[in-house]
């Protein structure tokens, strides 16, 4: 029988190698052996995804690789998550993420979501072509700590400004950090519309979220 | 500079050549009145400046005619393009497209989510397809109305066309999980594009061509994926376009492209419109003897959000970096001219091309550069 360390390594390697079947098998063996699901997620799956993002940052991995790694990670998560103790996850910082109204380009948003989830944030994904009001309503209902918006198009970037205005109108701006990204977006634009931060890619987005929310 | 001052200075500038005369002389290595310029895919922004929505421009022939007439008169843009957008072939093959009244269209639902449906897709006939036939018809009417203005046409690049048919995440995963079907899809999309060029040649004779291929950048795919899934099809598109039209196409690719410049030049691309995230001088040094370069004033931070002085300074910087490109240089924006770009900034761009691009000549710095 494999030791806990061996199984954790298989989970991690399975994610890095994009092998969904290996991950599923290792996750089941891990549970059958009675090891805690939380460690399997953090030290196995998330460790693998962190290694994948490191490779992405080093330009060894590209978008396709990260997508396939995350597919493998989610296969493992689906198996391990039901065995998490109830109290886990409540302390996580919560973010609302989506592509602003009028735009359906969502690869970048998906990468950011994957990386933020891997980094331990609880992300509520509104998908693409998201009505601006929905960012604010969801943040209110879920008592989110931050909102992430992305767009690839110049025609829709103004929507980010509108969301910030809506947050102000609702008196929520002080409680919700806003981070933005996407092809036409720049730090200059973030400053102009009063967003709390801009990040150029998914790895930077994690650093930014941690900085904005004072997480070491 | 204040707008009044810009207008005063522009009124003192005189056109010595028409756009057609200028580019002909420039290609022949003669000195021209000023640096040839263009604005990347400017129609939506132009419609906006003249007070029309993108939907009016797309659907109303009279609006389209007026925009073409006014952008020629007011901005010296002496040619017009009737081509296929990034999603048109996708729509022609059955993807559902959605277009906001004033904005850029998008794929609401892709036709090919499951390769089991692949055999239902057929190479599109520009004369019969309900999406393509009206575009060809509109080209005929515009050519009748503007017989002395040169018309060009365009398609989307192979991989970019493919993702208007199949969602991009699936297509990317296909590169690992289903290469065979992805190759079939790419074959089909290139055929559709070439059939469009065929029809255009049949109706109008040889015209200038270009393609936009935003997905083929190193922000989305790896060099390895480019080599296997993009380059062979780009090469096919270029070779067959040359056979049809007698001239090679130009292309615009958004984002990071430096790792593929050399491949694009080898594939025979005539001119390359380069994103503002890349450096014109680096491109000139890498491939400037083989490929014309166009670029790359930042569309958002400078054209849309910047001042008149920002635009002028950026145009000067672009020309300083690349106007002496051995295979030629076209002053351009780094990506599509955004809707919402102020008229004054378009005028500042043209003013800078005329003033600081004065006395341009292939492979040389313009005499007007400070």
Task: Walk me through what this model shows.
- The complex is a heterodimer of chains A (216) and B (370).
- By secondary structure, chain A is α/β, with parallel strands linked by helices.
- Chain A starts with a helix and ends with a helix.
- Chain A folds into two domains: 4-83, Orthogonal Bundle (Methyltransferase, Methionine Synthase (B12-binding Domains), Chain A, domain 1), CATH 1.10.1240.10; 94-212, Cobalamin-binding domain (Rossmann fold, 3-Layer(aba) Sandwich).
- Chain A has helices spanning 4-16, 20-32, 37-57, 63-80, 107-118, 132-142, 158-169, 187-193, 202-212; strands at 94-99, 122-125, 146-150, 177-181, 197-198.
- With 370 residues, chain B is α/β, with parallel strands linked by helices.
- Chain B has two domains: 1-52 and 270-370, no CATH class; 78-211 and 220-249, TIM Barrel, CATH 3.20.20.
- Chain B contains 16 helices and nine strands.
- Chain B has helices at residues 3-11, 19-27, 43-49, 54-59, 61-75, 88-93, 133-145, 158-162, 168-177, 179-204, 223-245, 261-266, 280-287, 299-304, 308-322, 343-355; strands at 79-81, 96-98, 106-109, 150-156, 209-212, 250-253, 271-274, 292-297, 329-333.
- A seven-stranded parallel sheet of chain B has the order 1-4-5-6-7-8-9.
- In chain B, strand 2 (96-98) and strand 3 (106-109) form a beta hairpin.
- Chain B is globular and about 65 Å long.
- The mean pLDDT of chain B is 96.
- The A-B interface holds A 18, 62-64, 67-68, 71, 102-104, 107, 110, 129, 153-158, 183-184, 186, 188-189, 192 and B 44, 100, 102-104, 106-108, 168-169, 172-173, 175-176, 218-222, 225, 254-255, 299-301, 304-305, 336, 338-340.
């Amino acid at each position: 029988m494999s030791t806990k360390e061996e199984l954790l390594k298989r989970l991690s390697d399975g994610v890095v190698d994009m092998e969904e079947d290996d991950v599923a098998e290792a996750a089941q063996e891990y549970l059958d052996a009675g090891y805690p699901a939380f460690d399997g997620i953090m030290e196995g799956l998330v460790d693998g995804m962190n290694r994948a993002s490191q490779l992405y940052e080093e330009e060894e991995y590209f978008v396709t690789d990260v997508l396939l790694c995350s597919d493998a990670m989610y296969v493992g998560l689906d198996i391990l998550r039901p065995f998490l103790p109830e109290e886990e996850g409540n302390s996580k910082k919560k973010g609302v993420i989506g592509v602003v109204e009028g735009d359906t380009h969502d690869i970048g948003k998906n990468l950011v979501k994957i990386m933020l989830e891997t980094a331990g944030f609880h992300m509520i994904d509104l998908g693409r072509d998201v009505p601006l009001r929905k960012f604010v309503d969801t943040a209110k209902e879920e008592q989110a700590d931050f909102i992430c918006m992305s767009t690839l198009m110049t025609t829709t970037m103004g929507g980010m400004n509108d969301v910030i205005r809506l947050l102000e109108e609702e008196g929520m701006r002080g409680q919700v950090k806003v981070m933005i990204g996407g092809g036409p977006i720049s730090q200059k634009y973030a400053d102009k519309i009063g967003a709390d931060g801009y990040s150029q890619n998914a790895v930077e987005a994690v650093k930014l979220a941690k900085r904005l929310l004072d997480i070491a | 500079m204040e707008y009044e001052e810009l207008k005063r200075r522009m009124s003192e500038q005189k056109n010595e050549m028409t756009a057609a005369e200028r580019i002909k002389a420039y290609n022949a290595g003669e000195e021209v009145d000023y640096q040839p310029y263009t604005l990347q895919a400017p129609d939506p922004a132009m419609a906006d400046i003249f007070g029309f929505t993108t939907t009016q421009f797309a659907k109303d022939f009279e609006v389209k005619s007026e925009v073409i007439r006014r952008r020629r008169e007011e901005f010296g843009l002496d040619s017009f393009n009737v081509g296929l957008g990034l999603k048109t072939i996708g729509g022609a093959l059955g993807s559902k497209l959605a277009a906001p009244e004033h904005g850029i269209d998008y794929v609401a639902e892709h036709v090919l989510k499951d390769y089991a449906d692949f055999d239902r897709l057929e190479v599109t006939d520009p004369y019969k397809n309900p999406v393509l036939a009206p575009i060809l018809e509109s080209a005929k009417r515009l050519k009748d109305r503007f017989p002395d203005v040169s018309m060009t046409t365009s398609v989307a690049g192979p991989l970019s066309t493919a993702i208007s048919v199949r969602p991009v995440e699936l297509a990317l995963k296909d590169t690992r999980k289903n290469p065979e079907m992805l190759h079939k899809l790419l074959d089909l999309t290139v055929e559709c594009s070439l059939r469009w060029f065929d029809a255009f040649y049949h109706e109008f004779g040889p015209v200038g061509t270009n393609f936009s291929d935003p997905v083929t950048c190193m922000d989305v795919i790896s060099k390895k994926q480019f080599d296997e899934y993009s380059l062979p099809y780009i090469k096919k598109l270029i070779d067959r376009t040359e056979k049809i039209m007698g001239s090679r196409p130009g292309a615009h690719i958004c984002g990071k492209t430096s790792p593929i410049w050399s491949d694009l030049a080898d594939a025979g691309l005539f001119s390359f419109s380069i994103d503002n995230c890349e450096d014109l001088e680096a491109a000139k040094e890498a491939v400037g003897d083989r490929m014309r370069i166009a670029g790359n004033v930042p569309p958002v931070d400078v054209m849309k959000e910047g001042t008149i002085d920002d635009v002028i300074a950026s145009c000067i910087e672009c020309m300083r970096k690349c106007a002496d490109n051995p295979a030629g240089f076209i002053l351009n924006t780094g990506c599509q001219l955004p809707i919402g770009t102020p008229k004054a900034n378009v005028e500042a761009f043209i003013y800078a091309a005329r003033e600081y691009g004065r006395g341009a000549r292939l492979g040389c710095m313009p005499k007007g550069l400070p």
